[in-house]
Queue: 4 jobs
Job 1
Amino acid sequence: MDKHKFEKNKKYYTISMYVLITFIVAIIAFKLIWNWGSTLRTMHKILNVLSPFLIGIFIAYLMNPLVKLIDGKLLKKIFRIKSDRVRKFISILFSYVIVLGIIAICISIIVPEIYSSLKNIYDGVQGSYDKLVNFLDKTSKEHPNWDIEYITSVVKDNSSKIIEFVQGSLDTILPLLYNTSISVISWVINLIIAIMVSCYMLIDKQRLLTNCKKVIYVIFKKSHADKISQTLSECNKIFGNFIIGKTIDSTIIGFLCFLFMNILGLKYSMLISVIVGITNMIPYFGPFIGAVPGVLILLTVNWKYALVFGVLILALQQFDGLYLGPKILGESTGLRPVWIIFAITVGGWLAGPIGMFLGVPCVAVIAFLTDRVISRKLTEKNISDEDLTVK
């Protein structure tokens, strides 16, 4: 009787648990995909609720290098403050004062300039329209035999529509932006919460990282946990280096665009340089995306200005791609150009301009993980790179 007694088999028990978990995950995934519309709405609601915390985590992620720099280089080495707690508090405080101060200065300078530029664009369109109408009227008087009545009517009708559209856009967009920035209290509250969350994340950074490591080491074997920790650290390095490096790179390109536009005497330098700096965050296509509105804006002034600006953007793009970008970013992504274009295309399809920017580091991380797995499998099979070389 003892011979047929049921005994727990650890091997088959583990296999059964894996099968059960896989089955449950497959059912959940199938249900989510089958009801995709409902899934998207639910995800949107969840993201709206969690947005202050997600934004706070992202802010902390961006602020962390500056906090570490002030803590290590300034407070520890120069001022020789020994207390870790005091250094942490001062470095976080200084970091936020510096960043918020720069943002406040930029807003106070850039926003009025942008508003003034938009008003000048409208005035320029109105002036061009008046000049064209006067020219046609003068021509009809000097050359009564010329039949230009149809041309005059077309110009007046279409020009008035364009002016009404531009004026209506300015009258609608500018107050909308102003009213939105003032009246959307929930957005302001979410931003305050996000800043508070980022502060707590930076304060408890070491504790949070330690807790995450504990979870990894509890779930996995030590050898596997060591590899996972190292891999996550490498992924964080790839993602962080790209975002921070690209931000610095785009800021420099925006400043250089503003500087050279003023040297060359081009109008609307502040408005166009802000557009160029922001769009430059998108690799490869960013400078050209930013060049289109700049050229259109300058065409309202003089086609020569638009041509000079186009040449300037081409020169800046070459400088950024051949020198500045590699100096700042280096090989932070490790992606070939075709994969960067793929990341931009898919990211733009999924999440618009933000997806075009974040798609590159995300694909870089996926490529890094895939390469790590493939390299390990090839090593296990004793296959070297030379064996795979096509001759």
Note: The mean pLDDT is 78.
Job 2
Amino acid sequence: MKKKGKITVTITIGIAVLALSTVMFMQFKLVNETDITSIENMREEELRTELANLKEQYDVANEQYEQQKQTLEQYQQQEKSDEETSKLVQDELDNVNLLLGKTNVEGEGVTITLRDKESEDGEFLIITSDILNILVNYLKLAGAEAISINDERIINTSDIATINETLILVNQQRIIGPYVVKAIGDKTYLESTLVARGGYVDTLQRQGYDVSIESSDKVEIPQYNKDITVKYMQQN
């Protein structure tokens, strides 16, 4: 549909250019057909009459020229306006998809890796969905703009749950350890928030959990790959 509209605008502009060229040709023809020798032999009154006729013809041709010129400029402005509008709409759509997690993104940030671990006294320290949920919330509070767990993008409607006390599901997909949590944001602030005394990574490490964190200038997070649907919300 968009291509058809561009073809129509192109044809219309072509017609306008042709008409404009025709008017200009009429002006040149009008000058060329004026017999200078005959004018020199005319009497003063005849010369005035002929001059008035020429001026009238020129004014008509010039008016047509200006009209066609304005029409052409309007078509050019309309085409430019359509392109600008289309770009603005596309930019807005891209921004919405970015915020919804529907695009692959990259940027500076941190990567946190969590593993199940057997402690020295034989106790198993298992990474649970509660631990992952708390970690995600800490990252959000620290300003993370995008988060994933084992490449499952976390959005506002994402769920992190434990099934049968053993299986962890993220976005209804089973994930297994090691659990790699990625976050894009101010890498220095994210890391310092988590590892400073009392930070969540620091707390887990003090409890004996196997947790490591690494900051990077380039963290890649994939898009949310499911449809985003609502059942009960509607515009007010």
Note: Residues 25-34 have pLDDT under 50 and may be disordered.
Job 3
Amino acid sequence: MAEQIASTKQLEQKLGFWDLQGSAIGQIIGAGIMSLMPAAINQTGRSVVFSFLIAAVITCAGAIPYIFLCSCVRLRGGMYTQMGLVAGKFFAGVNVVTSLLGQFGLAMYGLSLAAYIRPLFGWPESSEKWIGLAVLTIFFILNIMGIDAFAKIQNALVAILIGSLIMFGVMGITKVNWGTYFDNSDGYFMMNGALAMCQAAGLLTFATGGATIIVNFSAEAKNPVRDIPLVIVTSTLFVACMYAILAFVAAGVLPVPEIGNSLVNVANHILPTPLYYVFIIGGAGCALASTLNNQLATSTKPIMAMCDDGWLPQSFASLNKKKVPVKILTFFYIIGAIFTVSGLSVSTLGNMSLVLGGITSFILAIRVAAIPKLLPEQWARSKFKVSQGVLTIFTIIACAGSLFSTYMNASSLFSNMPLLMINIGFIVAAFAFAAIRGKSPNVNMSISYDDA
């Protein structure tokens, strides 16, 4: 396998607006929606539609730092470069650990997809981890084939996914009980009051978030300063509105107590058997597959920049002939494979580093107001430029959104002491790594951004 000098400057700029849109939508629509939507319905009833719209606003607030920074420069190291630019060397080092820990999700997506596939074929429950490993292996091989292959596969998965969800909405809309939907005579509209509706919105930020991952494609985007901010906003709002329509159907077809803990009951009620299987495979299956594919493709670019700066060995970022950092990708595959067969639950994998991610998001949010000083010329040219006063308001909104999301994420750990201690351990490890490794003469940070 031929290797080239490793650098994010060697990556080819091939991703256009619709490629980035497919990546963002595929990341947002994960399997969580299959369980989170029913959970939100059970919390607030048919007013879940409004919960989704509130969640979209909260998610966009949290995305403000990404939108403004990406409108100024090409961030070749993605989120790592972003953190180094606004928060300095120490928090860039913390981001090294955050990025590596984020690969636990590879096992989570593979196992979740296996949980949907296995029952369709009547395979035993013990086979799920091996199905998950097979799925992870397939997408690992596909990503080695280069960014072009990723984009084609991702766009196909997202097209099938959206088609399946639209089918669910179209087939179900005629079965909604319109006459009583907004009537609270049965107690299931605005169930438990406005506060419960807002709490459901907090839960649903899990389902509407994810578009900011495309920041990691900045080095491979054709026009990142225009496309990435637009895609973050449009993909989030598009998916949130689509979710609201699906929630309208899900909450309006069956009585709320009969919905259960997943959309499977509703889908089984409104779809004939062949289309039901299409929904399970094309909806739940492609939601997970597109997220897994996207995670593999986006996660390598920040690591490449970390290798450039000396946090990690330079040779780790070497490229194959398709300009894929194959060693990094293989390392992530090994991590995903180990955790896939480890027997850990999906919820455990998903909650192992929640708090650390929340801390770095808040640090990023609080530094939004400093962008005009950090990038004066680029900010002056940005199509998203606002006055300093308005930027300060956006900073406050971003911080509030970040704190809200972090609290909602962390609150699930308060009753689980082992997971809470794991999160605290990761925070200590990340700060220790940044402090100790940052003193090494091998770490020479050069913020990897370009005018675009």
Note: DSSP finds 22 helices and two strands in the chain.
Job 4
Amino acid sequence: MANVHTDGPAPIVSLWKRLDKALLCILLVPVLLAIFDPAQLRPTVSFATQAILHTGIFIVFAVLAVAYLKATGAESLLAKAFEGKETRMILFGAALGGLSPFCSCEVIPFIAAMLAVGAPLSAVMAFWLASPLMDPAMFLITSGTLGFDFALAKTLSAIGLGLMGGFIVMGFAKGPVFADPLRDRPAPKSCCGSDKPFAGKPEWAFWRDSHRRGVFKETAVENALFLGKWLLLAYLIEALMLHYIPAEAIAAVLGGDGLRPIVLGALVGAPAYLNGYAAVPLVDALLAQGMSNGAAMSFVIAGGVSCIPAAIAVWALVKPRVFYAYLTIAMLGAMIFGSLWGMIA
């Protein structure tokens, strides 16, 4: 008799892999509240809805800006950052990394090609450290929730971290950590659909080309769904944090002056980070409950660089010793720039 139970669990596992975990959590929050704390259901949903509406204008601008840059092919300009003298490459790599709207996985094949043809690791490290921390969409979302000053400070911190990492690598380029940095295997492909995302020249009047119009529409829809999904989840979590976590507990751990809350902010940010967009409402809630300004900055910097997409982009291409140096520089930079922001804010 045939064994009809052999493949029983497979459909369940396959279904679980296909499920959007963020959407699942969005649905679970009101369900769990309805079961365990019905009185808090309406205030939580209302808080999240109003927060989404409040940041809606920023989301729209962010979505359209990223879609325009993608449709025009402006990403091809990034290749120019890796031409010329090493110092110049580090400067441009950090600046473009802190301003470019391109995802961490998309730059994998591009960076692999640059390293393969001899681009210095210092310039690549500058770009890698700055890239996950800020982009036009994140700047608008951060400005709308945490204020323009915080968004600007984070942008400058991203560029500063890139410069710091780039020049550290340049100074120790011949040492045992950074010598021969690449893994001995073929370069990975981009998860964004193109193995050469930075080829060609920009076409600023993209609407004249039907293919580019399609890219604009696809990118706009994709980013709108992405931002809407993660921000809604983050606002739901923010509402729960504000209601259920005593402000005194947050203030005791991450509040106050000195280096301690900044170090703890970096250490907590690294494992607790969802993504740069979802982190904004969470930081807003933590600040409302007593988190210090310096700890907030160290949280977003350490978390941004160590988040899974950014970390995988580095791990996929370089040897473990270089990857650990990347994380070490990120944590050190998070504490430095968190301390600076704590003194200024």
Note: Residues 5 and 11 are 12 Å apart (CA to CA).
